[in-house]
């Protein structure tokens, strides 16, 4: 019986949704083909029809998570520092959904550091994120909102700040409620904006 | 036959060494009682005599890793900004040993986020680290090396920067060689030191 590509793609999306739910609840340590099948109310056999192994499952789930973030409506505000701020606010775990997504990303680091292919995928992801930040930094510099420091270094510093704040906020949500994350971000950006480096 | 506490402790240290080696090579996803036993050339049965389950193994290995870091010789330099810089240089993955240790910490986040006890341990660890940084920030402020901003916020920002730089350097060691990590840290500290926030 011929299979339709549309059905196949839809089923792969269903599987990815189940993968996200398992990851958000149990982390990568709890991600097994069986757990995902149970989450879907399907058999492990059906699952392996779409993904031959756990690694294929993980890679696909991370790619879809990337796409979901990229597909979010952009910020209509002005370019430069305001756009940079909006991008970072969007990434930080300030909502339950953003916290769940970040928890999946942070959890994926263990598996990724142990697997050269997944590690290369993550390295490329973070390089692209730095490139997007660098672009906003250069715009802010042209607008006179940021001093003319090396944009690569500033982008790496901003990305460091954001990743590290995410980790701390996931472990200590009471100490890092949304409003404190916003304040820390604003203070950090204000520090970067001061001339005299 | 009576067992000596000294032997027991020594064996637990041997086990922790094996746990670290497994973690550095395969991450938490690859950490099993069997893998640790194989690494030690021992039986799983012997291992369970010392650690009833994987969680006990993980908790003990992380505690010893903490102790190892705390036992390192302190920096004899002056207090304040120089001490803060030395602390952070010590943490960053600028040597193979520091990279291996950080890789274990980053890998542990997945397991820790999935387990309330491990998560509480990590939250307490990072709170203590922020407290140490806050102490150095206050000293630097008293010495006039840092402007009088909220020390809790500055400490959280510094910790964020360090954790995020660690993650990026682990995934992209070619982009973040030791000398670039040092330069990024120095530029970041110089930014914090500028008056006018």
Automatic annotation (TrEMBL), chains A, B:
Residues 32-51 bind DNA. SUPFAM superfamilies: Homeodomain-like, Tetracyclin repressor-like, C-terminal domain. Residues 9-69 form the HTH tetR-type domain. Transmembrane segments: none annotated. The keyword Nucleus does not apply. PROSITE patterns: HTH_TETR_1, HTH_TETR_2. Keywords: DNA-binding, Repressor, Transcription, Transcription regulation. InterPro entries: BetI_C, DNA-bd_HTH_TetR-type_CS, Homeodomain-like_sf, HTH-type_TetR-like_transc_reg, HTH_TetR, Tet_transcr_reg_TetR-rel_C_sf. GO terms for molecular function: DNA-binding transcription factor activity; transcription cis-regulatory region binding. PANTHER family: HTH-TYPE TRANSCRIPTIONAL REGULATOR RUTR, TETR-FAMILY TRANSCRIPTIONAL REGULATOR. This is AcrR family transcriptional regulator. It comes from Actinomadura namibiensis.
């Amino acid at each position: 019986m011929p299979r339709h590509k549309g059905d196949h793609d839809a089923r792969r999306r269903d599987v990815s949704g189940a993968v996200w739910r398992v990851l958000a609840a149990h982390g990568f340590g709890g991600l097994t083909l069986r757990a995902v099948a149970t989450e879907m109310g399907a058999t492990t056999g059906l699952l392996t029809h779409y993904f031959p192994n756990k690694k294929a499952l993980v890679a696909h789930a991370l790619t879809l998570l990337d796409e979901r973030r990229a597909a979010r409506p952009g910020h209509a505000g002005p370019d430069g520092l305001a756009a940079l701020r909006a991008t970072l606010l969007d990434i930080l775990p300030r909502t339950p959904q953003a916290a769940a997504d970040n928890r999946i990303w942070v959890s994926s680091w263990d598996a990724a550091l142990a697997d050269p292919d997944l590690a290369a995928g993550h390295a490329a992801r973070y390089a692209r994120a730095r490139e997007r930040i660098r672009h906003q930094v250069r715009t802010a510099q042209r607008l006179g909102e940021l001093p003319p420091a090396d944009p690569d270094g500033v982008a790496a510093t901003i990305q460091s700040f954001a990743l590290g704040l995410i980790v701390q906020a996931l472990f200590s949500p009471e100490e890092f409620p949304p409003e404190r994350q916003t304040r820390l971000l604003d203070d950090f950006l204000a520090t970067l904006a001061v001339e005299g480096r």
